[in-house]
Amino acid sequence: MSIEDQYDAWVRDLMGSARASTKREADAAAQSVEEMQRALDEMTAQSQKRRTAAGKAADAVGRAADATMENVRRMSSELTASLKKDGLLDNAPQKPAPAKKRGDFVGLADQVRTRVLGQDEFVGAVVKAFRRPFVMGVPDAARARSVMLLCGAEGTGRHYALRCVAEELAARGLISAARIETMDLSLYPGPAQEKLFLQDLYAALQSDAEILAFDHYEGCASAYLNMLATLAIDGTLALSSRYVLQRGILVDVGTALAPGAVGELQAGGKYFVFFSSKGPEALAERFGARFVDALSGDICRTAPFTPESLNAIAARELNALAQKVRAQCGLALSADGAVRDHLAARYGRANGVDAIQEYADDAYRAIAEYVLDHEEPLPAGTAMRLTVADGRLMAAVNGGEPFDLLNLLPQQYRGDVAAVEAELDGIIGLEEVKTFVRDIAKNVQAQQRRKAQGLQAASVNMHMIFTGNPGTGKTTIARILSKYLKAIGALRGGQLVEVTRADLVGRYVGHTAPLTNQVIQSALGGVLFIDEAYSLYRGREDSFGLEAIDTLVKGIEDHRDDLVVILAGYTREMQQFLTANSGLASRFPNQIEFPDYTGEQLWQIAGSIAKGKGYALDAACEAPLKDYFARRQAADAGKNGNGRMARNVVERAILNQSKRLVADPDASLELLLPGDFDLDED
User: Fold this and answer.
1) 637 with 469: CB under 8 angstroms?
2) Beta partners for 381?
3) Which residues contact 677 (CB under 8 A, 6 or more apart)?
4) Which of 154, 155, 175 is CA-nearest to residue 165?
């Protein structure tokens, strides 16, 4: 029984007893009650203190627990942030997207086939490849969602079909966006591009695009293809070193645990699409059979276009042209079957069906020019009919006289062919070289005529090597050639970009390829002239020079229709230079030797230089100068500088004449005399 219960019982007994008759007993009882009350109050106070202390202890424990949990959360957050900086959580597996209904693909292939004509089976195979993970599932979201190969001949619509499929997938919500991240693997031909390759691959994997496309694997180093194969098959690629991104450049930090370090790459659930103009057999040779097996049967091959399919594509483009002309120009456009066939004949292996689209675009721009040439709006219902005559696209308005439609296009400035011919004729000597330049121009013009008539045009390789001693006119001829090719329409730009080794070779690993590509881009549409090109090759130990050569060879191949490259240098050194790359000699079939000038030619050059500076050579100078030039050339033409020697001789004579004029104020200011040349000092 508790103290409180004892107290209550005692009080009941006391108050209920009739025998408390005396005052002494009552006082004693009251005193006892007071003592009991004080004891009870003290016990209550102590109990309250104990409860208060227990509460405080419990609060302290709670606060400690909260602090501990907060520390745990803070440490966890810091650890997560650290892992993200290391690139480990950036590549961490994401929750797989909820599976789409199989019905989402219903009619998708047919929809794409309305845009991609003549490749029905190919379109079906591509759609099947994209559908596969929706049906079979992806066990690990970090792995590639699917790996596929799109192969077939150039110009058969592989890239266009992929774009159309991606757009339709995005429209149906099967992928987040139609964006395709493409890597040109030919940009990584050797070991020097490893950092650049990893940087670009990392950026592609981190992009929002769900489709990664890899093109031109044939020009890629095997080591990088092995990395891609591992990433595509296993889903992860462990890097041999750790890397950090500094100012956009992936820097190797070895095994250091540096902030932001990247130790592995993950496929991240993306589609991997490989392009090839060859079949899976060629792919196996570079990637290995295991990689081809990983394609899971998703090898999609385009078929050669048939005349019927090309006609269908041409008819579609004509229909689109008619609608655009009606909407924008207010003309009712019509055409016969010959126009459709003429348009289909634009198809070419280099740019495929894009050539048909480009020709239709040219026709629209010409029709727009016709409308713009009329200040007043054309009457409503004006009809234009297209026909073909002598290989030309003709147009007739309201039954009028047909005219050459494409002649309405603004003519691109090409330069004055006659002026360039005159400049070429003005070059002293070099008759064989000038004949070669004219022969190239004639070949280009002949192929242009064949193309205009709808005939197959042969590709003209205009890359050249100029060899010879200094001062033999190599740079001068290169400048005239660039203007000549522009004037006849072989080049769209006609600019001459002159560079040396210093402009192509970088200062550190990974710098050369981008630098060389930048130079190539600046020369597109014109001529790239590399003087003393042999200096790019200083032996097999010169990795920077070899990288520049490899990049140059790749650039020549990629832009063979929009760039002419001329390499210049000494004859013997250039022969050695051609051994630096197995594909170098085959890309420069035109090798032209520039002969040394004779004494007679140098006399003529000296007279031309003097005339250009406002001077004239006295007739008495001819014999001594011819003799002087002949002797110097016979002694060592290579060191004397040929045309440069003539320039130096004339400039020194002008300086000597100025001294002579001080002593003889009445002398001619223009005439250079034999005594001005001081030939005996040489």
Assistant:
1) yes
2) none
3) 621, 624, 625, 628, 649, 652, 653, 656
4) 175
Supply 538's token pair: 């200083």
**CA–CA–CA angle 518, 521, 524 (5° rounding):** 155
Q: Residues 115, 239: contact at Cβ < 8 Å?
A: no
Q: How far apart are CA 540 and CA 449, in angstroms?
A: 45
Q: Which helix (H) or strand (E) holds 213?
A: strand 211-215
Range list of H helices, 411-490? 417-425, 431-452, 474-487
Is residue 101 over pLDDT 50?
no
Taking Cα atoms as reference points, which of 349, 309, 355 lies closest to residue 154? 349
Query: Could you tell me whether strands 464-468 and 564-569 are parallel, antiparallel, or unpaired per DSSP bridges?
Result: parallel
Range list of H helices, 330-430 = 337-344, 354-372, 417-425
Rg (CA), the chain: 43
Q: Measuring CA to CA, how many Å separate 404 from each of 330, 354, 448?
A: 20, 23, 17
Question: Are residues 641 and 648 in contact, defined by beta-carbon separation less than 8 angstroms?
Answer: yes
**Tokens standing for residue 647:** 């320039």
Closest CA to 475 of 533, 431, 520: 533
Amino acid at 205: L
Q: Which residues pair with 464 in a beta bridge?
A: 566, 590
- Residue 554's CB is within 10 A of a number of other CB atoms, namely 22
In this structure, what are the phi and psi dihedrals at residue 380, rounded to the nearest 5 degrees? -60, 140
Average pLDDT over residues 510-533: 88
Q: Which two tokens stand for residue 20?
A: 């408390």
Identify the band that residue 550 occupies on the pLDDT scale cut at 50, 70 and 90.
confident
**For 308-363, how does the pLDDT look when each residue is reduced to its tens digit (9 = 90+)?**
888 888 898 899 999 999 999 889 999 988 999 888 887 765 456 777 888 889 89
Query: 10 Å Cβ neighbour count for 507?
Result: 8
User: Average pLDDT in the 51-66 region?
Assistant: 52
Three-state SS across 241-255?
Answer: EEEEEECCEEEECCC
Secondary structure of residue 86 in the 3-state scheme: coil
Q: Which residues pair with 249 in a beta bridge?
A: 246
Whose CA is closest to 210, among 277, 133, 156, 300? 133
Q: Measured between alpha carbons, how far is residue 270 from residues 146, 181, 232 in Å? A: 7, 10, 10
Distance, CA of 77 to CA of 492 (rounded, Å)? 58
In this structure, the strands spanning 249-252 and 211-215 are unpaired
Residue 136, C-beta contacts closer than 8 angstroms, at least 6 positions apart = none
548/602 Cα distance (integer angstroms):
37
Instruction: For residue 352, list its beta bridge partners.
Output: 348
User: Parallel, antiparallel, or unpaired: how do β-strands 262-266 and 236-246 relate?
Assistant: antiparallel
456: left (phi over 0), alpha (psi -120 to 50) or beta: beta
In angstroms, the CA 256 to CA 508 distance is 22
Write out the two tokens for 172: 């149906």
Distance from the first to the final alpha carbon of the chain: 138
What does residue 470 show for φ and ψ, rounded to 5 degrees? Answer: -60, 150
- How far CA 66 is from CA of 71, 80, 322, in Å, comes to 9, 21, 75
SS3 assignment, position 569 = strand
d(CA 48, CA 645): 116
For residue 84, name the pLDDT band (cuts at 50, 70, 90).
Answer: very low
**Residue 528 near residue 479, CB atoms below 8 Å:** no
**Rounded CA separation 321/354 (Å):** 15
Q: How many CA atoms lie within 13 A of 143 on its CB side?
A: 12
